[in-house]
Recover the amino acids of this structure.
């Protein structure tokens, strides 16, 4: 049997986030298109070189992108919504970016989360009469480039036809077969051209095959792969699944593909069960996604090696193995080498993308040449992890005792919602259709510069605090002048809503360069949660209380919720996640208390990542929602009935968690809707929602300034299913990426929209 090392995809952003900087410079008109293209090529070559130097045999090509890999597929198929006015031929870069970000006139395409990750893709949009055509063959170009520049025999990667179609929008689900039928010849054409070029293997990513789907639908997928095989019989397809276990495993074994890639992290148990029950075809290659592409812990290679030599492998007597990560390495940072400031116990236990490659290659060598030859290196991974397990930070008796003491009572507020509503209304005296923002306000270059200087020790605590206060002052005045009802301090002191809390709580560390792409050029730096979580001292008080001292309007205290902190961190794996969530919730509960005691009357606890963590498999969902909701409630339920608790969610599919949203027992929720054009509102036709809600009316990802009419229109739509007394008017999400001018103009229109609605309502009431 042939055993090879392989990878599924690599981070694109570069060691110093050069990718982000180049893109943003280009958008700001500071980098010509040609220079951008050249810069992107450098980054692409660098990522291939790294994989080549690591000694990897199956290097993916075609996974690199200038924005998002789904968008790349869409433009390759000519799926450009009519509003962007694209004529014929390949889609130019400016149209590509307009689809992603919107332009002066046109709203951007919808963006949503990639399965259960925090990576966002641009949703391919089908319109009436859309006829897909193959405008380019991007994987082929990438293959040629890797070969020509570096002599790499690359493995072109594409999103497979089923997944691409499943994640598209603009057609009813009954039309899925038709759409697939339209796309199949285009995929076939790509494969034929790759075949002519002499490509050996192509990786077709089909993570949608781990989602529950019917037998019938699976047959449809089988038929597509039959056609692809007929069209290009000489090319070997690796049908790559990830993020869970493959559904309809047995049937998939007879797909005419040369290899099947399985996730042995997220789907290990189920996949193993299928393997031992149904075996694996002799003639196919098994892709073993053994190293976790979603987390940053070093693997215990001795243990993994043992696993790979275990009994189950007798059933997998196939033509070959590819040892690979469980999914693309897109979801983890590039290199541990840059983390010079981490304690060494921790540093030795980490593995980012570069290190994962080393682990894969080592594991492969050990399998091929025998473990003895590598025993020292293999043992090193085991002892590094042992050392971490026994380090004093890992277990804090007081924390574990505190979580043991939690009772149901701690997750219930003192008064039911109906009573709270009255008490809060008396305290806050807000108008109908109250206006607010989601928390962050534009982070100017000046804000970033000051923060950087302070972090690097070039600015004193004193002068940094003075600077932040000055920003807060400025923006409290702006918000008052615009006429918003519930103000925010602006979050100028935070780089990121999770990292900030990671810096303040014990049990977390933040990295120097551990960036991961979130959407477009936006990267996040997830903190590492390695030990028991301890509340040290107030985390957000200074800024919020200062802001409140400047105004008679309520200022919202802004906190990130326990589930979002959990889902957007790299979390230890030695404790069950619900238990870690409870630890975080207890810390936040303390912060809520502190805010309240300082006179803050409205507290928002953001949970944009709650939906993202929903398991892909239906049968695991209830359990997740139960502990997630309980953690949120534990964090907020200590609030006095007169304290208005808000939550916020965005960029996810909310329909299937509406019940859980109610269960959170928050008084108000603000929720993103403008990218999905009000689809969410429809959901409220089916579910009776009695709390207050602010459906977002301003798409904050676009430089576009929405006018008053657009915003009133969205609110009118909401008014069809919700009462005026339930509705708030707010943007989709935080404004930190917008310019001051964009934010101010849009918020003026937003306040105007609310005034318009009040006026209309008063007129109706008079009649
Ligand atoms: N309060 C955060 C902000 O406004 C919320 C961000 C988010 O939902 N991702 O930036
Ligand atoms: Zn948001």
């Amino acid at each position: 049997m042939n055993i090879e090392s392989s990878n599924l995809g690599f981070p694109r952003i570069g060691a110093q986030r050069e990718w982000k900087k180049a893109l943003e410079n280009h958008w700001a008109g500071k980098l010509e298109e040609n220079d951008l293209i050249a810069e992107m090529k450098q980054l692409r070559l660098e990522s291939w070189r790294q994989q080549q130097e690591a000694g990897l045999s199956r290097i993916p090509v075609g996974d690199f992108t200038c924005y998002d890999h789904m968008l790349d597929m869409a433009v390759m198929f000519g799926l450009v919504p009519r509003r962007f006015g694209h004529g014929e031929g390949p889609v130019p870069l400016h149209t590509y970016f307009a689809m992603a970000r919107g332009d002066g006139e046109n709203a951007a395409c919808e963006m949503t989360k990639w399965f259960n990750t925090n990576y966002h893709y641009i949703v391919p949009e089908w319109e009436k009469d859309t006829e897909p055509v193959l405008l380019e063959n991007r994987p082929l170009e990438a293959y040629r480039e890797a070969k020509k520049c570096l002599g790499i025999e690359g493995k072109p990667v594409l999103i497979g036809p089923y997944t691409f179609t499943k994640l598209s929008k603009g057609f009813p689900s009954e039309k899925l077969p038709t759409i697939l039928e339209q796309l199949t010849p285009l995929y076939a054409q790509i494969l034929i051209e790759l075949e002519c070029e002499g490509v050996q293997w192509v990786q077709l990513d089909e993570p949608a095959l781990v989602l529950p789907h019917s037998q019938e639908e699976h047959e449809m997928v089988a038929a597509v792969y039959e056609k692809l095989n007929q069209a290009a019989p000489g090319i070997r397809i690796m049908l790559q699944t990830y993020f869970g276990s493959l559904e309809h495993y047995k049937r998939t074994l007879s797909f005419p593909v040369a290899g099947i890639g399985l996730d042995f992290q997220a789907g290990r148990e189920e996949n193993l069960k299928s393997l031992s029950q149904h075996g694996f075809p002799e003639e196919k290659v098994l892709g073993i996604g053994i190293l976790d592409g979603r987390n940053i812990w070093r693997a215990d290679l001795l243990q993994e090696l043992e696993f790979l030599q275990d009994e189950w492998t007798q059933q997998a007597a196939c033509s070959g193995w590819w040892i690979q990560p469980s999914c693309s390495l897109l979801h983890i940072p590039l290199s541990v080498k840059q983390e010079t400031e981490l304690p060494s116990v921790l540093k030795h236990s980490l593995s980012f993308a570069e290190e994962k490659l080393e682990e894969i290659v080592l594991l492969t060598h050990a399998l091929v040449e025998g473990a003895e030859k590598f025993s020292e290196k293999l043992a090193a991974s085991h002892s590094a992890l042992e050392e971490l397990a026994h380090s004093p930070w890992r277990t804090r008796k007081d924390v574990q005792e505190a979580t043991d003491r939690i009772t149901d009572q701690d997750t219930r507020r003192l008064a039911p919602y109906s009573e709270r509503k009255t008490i809060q209304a008396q305290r806050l005296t807000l108008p109908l259709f109250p206006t607010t923002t989601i928390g962050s306000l534009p982070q100017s270059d000046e804000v970033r510069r000051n923060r950087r200087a302070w972090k690097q020790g070039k600015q004193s605590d004193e002068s940094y605090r003075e600077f932040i206060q000055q920003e807060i002052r400025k923006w409290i005045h702006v918000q008052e002048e615009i006429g918003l009802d519930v103000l925010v301090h602006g979050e100028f002191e935070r780089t990121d809503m999770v990292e900030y809390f990671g810096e303040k709580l014990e049990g977390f560390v933040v990295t120097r360069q551990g960036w991961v792409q979130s959407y477009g050029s936006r990267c996040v730096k997830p903190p590492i949660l390695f030990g028991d979580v301890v509340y040290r001292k107030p985390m957000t008080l200074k800024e919020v209380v200062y802001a409140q001292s400047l105004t008679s309007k309520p200022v919202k205290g802004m906190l990130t919720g326990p589930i979002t902190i959990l889902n957007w961190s790299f979390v230890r794996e030695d404790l069950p996640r619900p238990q870690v969530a409870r630890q975080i919730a207890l810390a936040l509960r303390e912060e809520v208390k502190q805010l309240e005691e300082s006179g803050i009357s409205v507290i928002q606890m953001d949970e944009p990542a709650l939906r993202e963590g929903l398991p892909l498999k239906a049968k695991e969902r209830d359990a997740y929602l139960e502990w997630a909701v309980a953690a949120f409630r534990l964090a907020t339920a200590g609030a006095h009935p007169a304290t208005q608790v808000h939550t916020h969610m965005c960029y996810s599919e909310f329909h299937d968690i509406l019940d859980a949203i109610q269960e959170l027992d928050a008084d108000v929720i603000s929720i993103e809707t403008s990218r999905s054009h009000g689809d969410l509102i429809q959901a409220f036709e089916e579910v009776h929602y009695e709390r207050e809600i602010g459906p977002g009316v301003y798409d904050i990802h676009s430089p576009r300034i929405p006018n008053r009419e657009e915003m009133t229109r969205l609110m009118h739509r909401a008014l069809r299913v919700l009462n005026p007394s339930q509705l708030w008017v707010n943007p989709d999400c935080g404004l930190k990426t917008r310019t001051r001018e964009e934010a101010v103009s849009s918020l003026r229109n937003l306040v105007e929209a609310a005034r318009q609605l009040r006026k209309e309502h008063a007129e109706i009431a008079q009649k």
About this structure: Residues 237 and 257 are 5 Å apart (CA to CA). The pocket of zinc ion (ligand 2) is lined by residues 438, 608, 648, 650, 672, 733-734 (CB under 6 Å). The longest strand covers residues 285-291.
